[in-house]
Design a protein that fits this description.
CATH superfamily: Glycerol uptake facilitator protein
CATH architecture: Up-down Bundle
Distance between the termini: 19 Å
Mean pLDDT: 94
Order of helices and strands: HHHHHHHHHHH
CATH topology: Glycerol uptake facilitator protein
Oligomer: single chain
Helix content: over 70%
CATH class: Mainly Alpha
Number of strands: 0
């Protein structure tokens, strides 16, 4: 496993290549990441219904992040660490925003594809009830509640991405992803990408959640994830490990 300084340097030096990846590549891998994330969410919900344990469900949930990292996927939240490249003047703000916006839209598309297919699978009433309950809980948060839950999730998600990048073996990468991701689900923190599954899935299988209610959750959660990942984690490590250093 490489050191924190070497990990920071890797994010900085590789930022140009990643930020300027072809549109089609970023978009397709973004769809995969959305699909994988939704699968992890769906599996966690199934676990909660089958064994009535939020703790066990939190051990299932990281599968989406593990698939994204180890099988190939471009996740908006995890790639907020590319901000390190911007802070070190390796990429422009335009390049950073281009990459993140493509990933965000593609992740949303991947989640919606899964939602459409899963909704046609003939889910039992107990599973549908829990799916709808989950969506209603998420849209009930105030703006500040959703923002703060998003900030804490952004920190953990980007630490998971950080650890996976530092890991050199498959086992190191999986362990690095697993624990921060498990913790954010266990604690009920909010991630914008997984909510692109949780809330639309509740919308399509039930009634009562409007598009405006969805946006009332998605906007502050997205902002919170950006603050936690791009501002707190990326800024902190960039300052501590690369400031005044020739990388």
């Amino acid at each position: 496993m490489i050191s924190p300084i070497e990990t920071t340097r890797s994010f900085s030096t590789n930022a140009k290549k990643r930020a300027n990846s072809p549109f089609a590549t970023v978009f397709i891998l973004g769809i995969f990441a959305g699909l994988y994330s939704a699968m992890g969410c769906f599996g966690a919900q199934y676990a909660e219904v089958l064994i009535s344990s939020h703790v066990i469900a939190s051990f299932i949930f990281p599968i989406g992040s593990i698939l994204t990292t180890c099988c190939g996927g471009t996740l908006f939240t995890g790639n907020l660490l590319l901000s390190i490249g911007f802070y070190q003047k390796k990429i422009s703000l335009k390049e950073l925003l281009r990459y993140l916006c493509i990933a965000y839209v593609a992740n949303f598309a991947g989640c919606l594809i899964f939602v459409f297919i899963a909704s046609l699978c003939g889910l039992n009433d107990e599973t549908l009830s829990f799916i709808i309950h989950t969506g209603n809980v998420k849209v009930s948060y105030t703006f500040i509640e959703a923002l703060c839950r998003g900030i804490l999730c952004g920190i953990l998600i980007n630490l998971g991405a950080w650890l996976s990048y530092a890991g050199e073996s498959l086992v190191e990468k999986i362990c690095g992803i697993f624990f921060p991701t498990m913790l954010f689900y266990l604690c009920g923190f909010e991630q914008c990408i997984t909510n692109m599954y949780f809330i639309p899935m509740a919308m399509i299988t039930g009634k009562g959640i409007s598009i405006m209610m969805f946006l009332h959750n998605l906007i502050p959660v997205t902002l919170g994830n950006i603050i936690g990942g791009a501002l707190i984690v990326a800024t902190g490590y960039s300052y501590c490990f690369l400031k005044n250093k020739n990388d």
